[in-house]
Amino acid sequence: MRYFIFILGLVIIIPLVLQAEVKDCIYCDTTGRVGCLYCNGAGFQECTSCYGTGVSQFQTCYHCDGLGRTYNEFFNRWELCSVCHGRGAPKCSVCKGRGVVKCYFCKGSGTTKCPYCKGRGYTKD
Fold this sequence. Notes:
Strand content: 25-35%
Number of helices: 0
Oligomer: single chain
Radius of gyration: 30 Å
Mean pLDDT: 81
Helix content: under 10%
Distance between the termini: 21 Å
Shape: rod-shaped
């Protein structure tokens, strides 16, 4: 079947586009979402600034010079540094000392849009 359109004496033939058969997406089980490939569905990744340690890689504590402890002359003993709490360096400013950050690709949800059905949950053949 074809449609005919008359515009100022011209005949334009537009073929009828048939609907494609709709099938459930087998990759996402019709949810439209799949596990994130970058964080393996966890929603977070290791911090690339501190490599998961939670402490700054380029600075040392100004109070203990990176030792993590200070000598208390009054009590004549070594004590945990009151500034860095034994880490020897300040907390990582990117991950706030946690060692992990929210996944950039899935925004922390652990899932992304299905690449096969483009998040619709079904495919057209």
